[in-house]
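Cross-check.
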Amino acid sequence: MIGVVEFVILAVALCAVAAAVAAVLIRRRRSRASAKAAGAEKVADLVVGRLADKTESAAPASARPALRQRLSKARGALSGPLSAAFDRAAVTDEAWAEAAEALIRADVGLASSSEIVAAARERAAAEGNDRGAALAALKAELHERLHGFDRSLKRLPEGAGPAVWLFVGVNGAGKTTTVGKLAKQQTDRGARVVLAAGDTFRAAAGEQLAMWAERASAHIVAGAPGADPSSVVHDAVSAAAARGADLVLADTAGRFHTEQNLMAELRKVRRVADNAAGTVTETLLVLDAATGQNGLAQARQFTQAVDLTGVVLTKLDGSAKGGIVVSVQAEIGAPVKLVGVGEGIDDLVPFDAAEFVDALFD
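Predicted model, tokenized:
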């Protein structure tokens, strides 16, 4: 049998061991929790960084490829066939027919292609009607057809309330990404921007725009999934007015241009946005440049639904043939204002008609 003293010593020792074990367990749990938190934070950072573009590792503007290089596929679709059409001893009717076919294949459109070739043919005849004159005449005609449009993005004078830019288009055209990139560009220039997550029907649209809002340090107004888009846009404009913001960039639901009920909803969004505390100064149709003649069909329908002020052509550096720049302006009478020529924020650029035509022919 042990005495009282020995019993007390044994009890104290057991308590010390238990305390040590408990301390080890607590440290392990805290370590695991910290690791999980760090992991979650890392994942969140990766998501935001990846969505914002790959601009962190992008080359500086001075080192980025020129527009000519970015439009290599579009140039191949147009300049190659045109050069081949006039690569003969004399410029014949057959050569002009091949030139018209090349323009049509490049998505310029049948009517526009016919008009361009007819006018270029007259020009070339006055300049000697040789290969050089024919190509120069076609280039001049394209320049003229793209010239004379106001391609600026309209703002309001200081203190006149927020200007509202509405973005419309079908799903997959790059509408939400365009809104996000423009938000970042505008805030970098000192503008106070509010984003309206008006595409309440696509599950990921609001989350995607929220990430862009964080990236751009812009305020965002969103509604519950399936909420009335016009109410979201109204609330965003009201919030912008209360904050003294300069701009509201409003995303809208990606609508198939054949769905009349959705087009009616879009008209409602446009009315509500203009009747709120701001003024709609831009209604921009976002088109995937690779959709060609289907893009023209979209442009016609959206023009009937809302008063378009301009077009944003995305993915112009990809498989797009480039001629849609000419045909969409001829079709709806609204200019191409911005083009997407890459994945980075700074790859959404103002459209320069002269540079574009030069890039196609040089």
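The longest helix spans residues 4-52. The first strand starts at residue 163 and ends at 168. Passed to J.P. for a second look.
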